[in-house]
C-alpha cells in the first residue's frame, strides 16, 4: 500500500494530523487565547485540504472569513470579558465513564470509514478546478443549475445576524456593565 | 523596424513572456559547472521557486531597511533637517547599523506575560507580509506565483497581520499594550473593508482577479490605467484606497494605536530588541505592499507610461517593466510619507466615523454607480 | 496546486526568517541581571498598579461584528463581480463544466443590486440604532 502513496496523500495525512492536533489543543487548552491560536492552526490546515481538492475559492473563504473574521471576532470577545484569559476553566462533564463512552463511539464511527479509504480501487480522479468565474456564474445563474436563491438568502441571513447581534449588544441597561469601562 | 518593435511590445508578446525567471536571472550570474552537487541542484531550473523565495526574502529585508532610511530622510527634509548622514553614503547604511544594534539588545519579557503568545506574536505580521509578496507582479515575468484568486488572496492574507498585533498587545500584560492592540484591531478591521471594496471595483471593471491579468487589462496608453480610464470613479476609488490603506497600515495621521502622546508605543510598548524589530520590519514591508497593490490595481503596474505617439512609446518601452513598477510604487510610498508628516492625528471617534459613515457608503455607492454605468454600456 | 506548494514554502521560509532572527538574537544578545523592577510593565516610570487586563467597552465588539458581515459580503461579491464584464460584453458566461450560461446584463445588475441593498439596509439600521457611534 505504501508504494501507492502519492504526493497528494502525503499532504492529506500531514494536514489532517495538524487538524486533529489543533482540534485537540483547542478543546484541551485551559487558556481561551491559546484555544483561539490553535483554532487558527486548525482552520488554516482545513484551507490546505480545500486546496488539495482544487477548491481555491472555498480555501480563500476559509482564510478570509473564518480566520480573518471569526477568530478575530472571538479574540475581541475574549478580550472584552474580564480576566477570562487567565482563568482556568473546568470541564463541563466530569464523569469519566460518560466521556469515555462518547469517545469510543466517535472513534468507532470514524473507524467505519477506514475500509472505504484504503480500498485500492477507490475513485481516484481529482476534483476539477472550479475557478472564480465558474463560482460566480453558478451564483447568478437563473436556471435550475444555478444558486441565485441561496445567494440572495445569504444577504438576508447575514442581515438578520447583524440586527440580532446589535439588538443584544446595545441592550446594556444592566448597571453592572456600566462601570470600569475604558476606551 | 518599427513594426517589429510594436510586435515586441504587443499585449500577446507581453503575456507570453516566460514565467518564473527569477531563478534564471540569478543563475545567469553563476557559472554552469558546479563541483558541489547540492548547490548545482539548488541552481538547477527545477528549483526556480526555491530560488525565487530566497531572493524575495532577501528583497523583503532590503526593502524594509531602505524604506526606514527613506522615511527618516523624507521626514527630516520636511522638517528642514538633514536626517541620517554618517553611516555610509547619505547615511544609507544607517538602518543596517540599527538592525545590528537591535540584534544585540536584550529581549525583555514583562512579568505576568504569557511566554508562548508573547514570542509567537512577532512571527505573524512578518510572515503575512512575506506571503503577500509572493503574488505581486514585479514585471511581466517576475512574479513568484500567479494564482487565479490573487485579489482575494491579498485581502485574506494581509488580514493575518492583525493577529500579531492583538496577541502581542494582550500577551504583554501592560495597559498601554492592550489599549493600543484593541484600537489597532478595531481600526484595521474597519479599514480592511474599504480596501477590499476598493479593489472590488477594479475586479468588476477588469473582469479579472489574477494580479498579472489585472495589470494587462490596463494595457494601452496612460488613459487605460484604471485611475484615469473612467470618468471619475477611478480617481475616487484611488483616493479612498490611499486613505484606507494608510489607516490599515496604522501609519500617521491614523497612527492612533501607537499615539506617542497617549499610549507610549501602543501594542509594542513591551517589545524590545529583535522582537520589536520584527513588528517594525513587517510595518515597512506592508507599506511597500500597499504601494505595490495600489500600483497594480490603479497605476498600470509594470506597464510603461505611454501616450500613443509611436516614437515616445518606443522609448518608454525600452525602460524595463520592473523599473516602472518600482517608480510607481515608490511614488505611492512617498504619498504615504507625505501624509504622515503633513496631517494632524484625528481622534478615535473621528477615525471610526470616517470609515463607517463616510468611506464605506462612498465605496458602496461608487461600486453601484459604476455597475449601473457598466450595464448601460457607458463605460469601457 | 504547484502555486500553493510554493506559497506553503514561502510561509515556511517566512517563519524560518523570523525564528532565525529571534534565535540569533537570543544567542548574542546582552542579558542583564534579573531584578523585580525589570519585569514590571511600562507605565511611564511609576510602579504598575491594578490589573493590566482591563475591561473594554462594547463598542469594539459591535465594530468587529459589522466587520464580519461586510467581510462575508465582499467575499461573495468577488466571484460575481468577476463575471460582470464578461456578461456585459458577450451576454453569456463561458463555463468549464456545462454549456455557456446566458444572462442578460440588466438581470445580473438587478441580482447584485438586491444583494447590495439588503446590506446597505443593514448599514442604515446599524447607523440608526447608534451602533456606529463611538461613545
Question: What order do the helices and strands come in, and which of them pair?
Answer:
The complex is a heterotrimer of chains A (183), B (380) and C (135).
Chain A: H1 7-28, H2 32-52, H3 56-80, H4 96-111, H5 114-118, H6 132-140, H7 148-169
Helix pairs in contact in A: 1-2, 2-3
Chain B: H1 2-8, H2 11-15, H3 22-27, H4 37-42, H5 48-78, H6 94-103, H7 115-120, H8 123-133, H9 150-158, H10 161-171, H11 175-206, H12 211-216, H13 226-229, H14 233-248, H15 260-263, H16 273-298, H17 310-318, H18 321-342, H19 348-376
Helix pairs in contact in B: 5-6, 5-16, 5-18, 8-9, 8-10, 8-16, 10-11, 11-14, 11-19, 14-16, 14-19, 16-18
Chain C: H1 2-28, H2 59-90, E1 92-93, E2 101-102, H3 105-128
Antiparallel strand pairs in C: 1-2
Helix pairs in contact in C: 2-3
Walkthrough of the structure:
The complex is a heterotrimer of chains A (183), B (380) and C (135). Chain A contains seven helices and no strands. The radius of gyration of chain A is 22 Å and the shape is globular. Chain A is an all-alpha fold. Chain A has helices at 7-28, 32-52, 56-80, 96-111, 114-118, 132-140, 148-169. The relative contact order of chain A is 0.07. In chain A, helix 1 (7-28) runs antiparallel to helix 2 (32-52) and helix 2 runs antiparallel to helix 3. Among the domains of chain A are: 1-85, NADH-ubiquinone/plastoquinone oxidoreductase chain 6, subunit NuoJ (Four Helix Bundle (Hemerythrin (Met), subunit A)), CATH 1.20.120.1200; 131-170. In chain B, helix 5 (48-78) crosses helix 6 (94-103). Chain B has a domain at 115-376. Chain B has helices at 2-8, 11-15, 22-27, 37-42, 48-78, 94-103, 115-120, 123-133, 150-158, 161-171, 175-206, 211-216, 226-229, 233-248, 260-263, 273-298, 310-318, 321-342, 348-376. In chain C, helix 2 runs antiparallel to helix 3 (105-128). The longest helix of chain C is centred in the middle third of the chain and has 32 residues, at 59-90. The chains are: A mainly alpha (183), B mainly alpha (380), C mainly alpha (135). Chains in contact: A-B, A-C, B-C. Chains B and C meet through helix 5, helix 8, helix 9, helix 11 and helix 16 of B and helix 1, helix 2 and helix 3 of C.
